[in-house]
Here is the input.
Amino acid sequence: MAKEPTMASAAIPALNATHICGLAIICLGIGLATGYISPGFLPPDAAAKTAAKAPRLSASAGSLANPHAPNPHAPTLQQMQLAADQQVSPLREKLKTHPSDSALLAQIGAIYHTTHQFKRAADSYQKAVQADPQNVALRTRWSASLYRSGDVDGALTQLNQALTLSPRDANALFDLGMIKLQGKGDGKGALVAWQQLLKSNPQLSPDRKTTVLKLMAGVLTTQGDQQGIERARNNDQHK
Here is the structure.
């Protein structure tokens, strides 16, 4: 078992509602580049494979993660979607002879998700999960696309199913908290998911753990629970 990373002892700053919304949006926005809400929680090998399969639409496509960054050379959404259709076309040809190839279906889903075609991405991921129902990572990706398409309840259903298969899965637990917070306004539910994430994944890096603790601190601050902030910090320091 991997040794638990040591966290810095610096106090976690209290976050107001604006701060926590900003953090949540950043974490959710990063997922546009890979098809995940929480790519930062992928194991290094899985992250590398996901990045390798991400569509290369242009050198500046990654700027979409920060819509306020000036980039006159960035492609328009329509241009990205047209490029996505071109990339998907040969994959769909392969599906004609391999209709249950979950890897092909997932690749199509990732392309659609990255280009903001979330409904089409969700449809592809659904077929991938039907072909490989025990695959927790695919369910997590499907959930992300469902959430982006506006189906919050469907997203939560798939995350809960993923956690039934793998209760300690860091990506699913992180996303569960994010979607409960952002999609349902359920701060308490988000805290439960993130507490379980920290408890069951002691191998998380200090940076990843700090991200979760800051999000938890923000939720607790909006609830006026300063003592809860101290408990969250002290419990982690004494593990």
